[in-house]
Each structure stands twice: as C-alpha cells, then as structure tokens.
Specification:
Helix content is 18%, strand content 26%. The protein has helices spanning 190-195, 200-215, 220-230, 235-246; strands spanning 5-6, 11-12, 17-18, 23-24, 28-30, 35-36, 41-42, 46-48, 53-54, 59-62, 75-78, 83-84, 89-91, 99-102, 107-108, 113-114, 119-120, 125-126, 131-132, 137-138, 143-144, 149-150, 155-156, 161-162, 167-168, 176-179, 184-188.
C-alpha cells in the first residue's frame, strides 16, 4: 500500500483490504471483510459495517455543506453489504440530527452525493450523479435513477422508483413511479413490486388507492377518508395514509395537474 495512512486509533475489523493513497482518520470504525479502494478518504466520525465495497476516490464523513454547521460532533453511519462506487461523497450530520445514516445492502453509483442528516434505508439503488440535499429521507427498496436532484427535506417512500433526470421538490409516496421535471405520478412501480412478491390483488388495491388519492387531490382529507372507508385495513393501505398525513412538503403532482 503506497502512501496510505491509517491512524493508529482507527478501529478496523478483520480481513480488510485498503488500496493505495487512502487516508483513514482516527475516529473511524470499519467492520470485517470491507474492501477499500485507491485514493479513498474516510474522515473522523465515520462508522462502516461489514462486507462493504468502497471504490476509488470516495470521500466519506466530510463536513456538512451547511452554513449552520458549527463544528459540533456528528457522525456518518453506514450499514453492512453496501457497494459505494467511484467518486461518491457522503457528508456527516449536523446539530439537526447529529447523524447521516445509510442502511444495508445498498448500491450507490458513481458521483452520487448524499448530504448531511440524510437517512437512506436498505436495499436501495442510488444512481450515478444523483444528488440528495440535506435531510432527505429515503425508504427501503427505493430506486433513484441517474442525474436526479432531490430537494432538501424531501421524503421518498419505500418501493418507489424515480426516473432519471427528474427534479424532486415534493414528497414521493410509497410503491409508485415518479418522473419528469418537476416529478409527477406515473403509476405503480409494477416491475419492482412484482419482483418483491406483490401479487395481482395487492397491485390492484394499490392502484385503486392512488386513483382516489389523485382524483380527490384538491381535498386530501376527503381522499384519505374515502380510502379508509372503502378498503380493508392492510399494511400497505395504512402506510400510504400515514405517509400522506405526515407529509410536510406536500405531494408530487398527478397526471393532469
């Protein structure tokens, strides 16, 4: 390993490989069997789980790009079995949440940026050159395609897909496809949902729920009351209702808005 610096206080697990010209600072924890490429920088406050692949020129745990940050102690927490490709940057948190959190089994493609205090779930795909601004929340099994920009504080629900070159300025509810600029509802994420075992009955239920939600868009309260009255209580129904009620940025547009 040429010109590689690993601080003696860094806590490294077993069977870790480290490439050339890589820097690992002192307040860093890295789990077993993690592979670290060339020219990687892992900064103070970074926690990385087991079996991760960190490719060349990645920077993890950089200072938040937020003028409110006053050098408070914060961390970046990354789970197990993640693949982080070339030139990805992930910043640590601020006093807002004190932590940026990346779950497990995610693929984060080249040149993506994940800002301070973001929360990314498990089994997500973050495409090339995707930008997540500060405090974005991404649920499990989300696929964000390349060159998409996500506005700060946006929430993206589980099992959703965002097409490439999209601009996300509103919340994206679960189970759907969003696309265009700004993002609009294009229907269910049928391919992804079928891959994960959602049967035809469940897909029809979800489609009918979203038909009501967007038809009654001018009165969300009425739409949610109709959904509650017309559909049996299920995990998926209740997740949609809860997501809409909790939304602070408002929902993305429907087909004809």
């Amino acid at each position: 390993m040429k010109n590689t610096f690993v601080h003696k206080k860094a806590l490294l697990g077993k069977h870790i490989t480290i490439g050339n010209n890589t820097t690992i600072e002192d307040d860093v924890i890295i789990g077993d069997n993690t592979q670290i490429g060339n020219n990687v920088t892992i900064l103070n406050g970074t926690r990385i789980g087991k079996n991760c692949q960190i490719h060349s020129n990645v920077i993890l745990g950089g200072l938040p790009q937020d003028l409110k940050y006053k050098n408070e102690y914060t961390i970046l927490e990354i789970g197990h079995n993640n693949i982080i490709r070339e030139f990805v940057t992930i910043n640590r948190g601020t006093a807002s949440k004190y932590k940026t959190s990346i779950g497990s089994s995610n693929l984060i493609m080249s040149n993506a940026h994940i800002g301070h205090d973001c929360v990314v779930g498990d089994n997500c795909v973050i495409g090339f050159s995707v930008g997540l601004a500060g405090e974005v929340q991404v649920g499990d099994w989300v696929n964000i395609s390349g060159l998409t920009a996500v506005h700060q504080f946006s929430v993206i629900g589980e099992h959703s897909m965002i097409s490439g070159l999209s601009r996300v300025v509103k919340d994206i509810p679960p189970y759907i496809i969003a696309a265009r600029e700004p993002s609009q509802y294009l229907g269910l994420n049928l391919v992804g949902l079928k891959r994960r075992g959602f049967d035809s009955g469940k897909l029809q239920e979800l489609k009918a729920i979203y038909r009501i939600l967007f038809q009654e868009r001018r009165n969300t309260k009425v739409a949610l009351e109709l959904i509650e009255s017309r559909f049996e209580q299920t995990i998926e129904r209740d997740r949609i209702i809860d997501f809409v009620r909790r939304s602070k940025r408002g929902m993305l547009k429907g087909f004809n808005e």
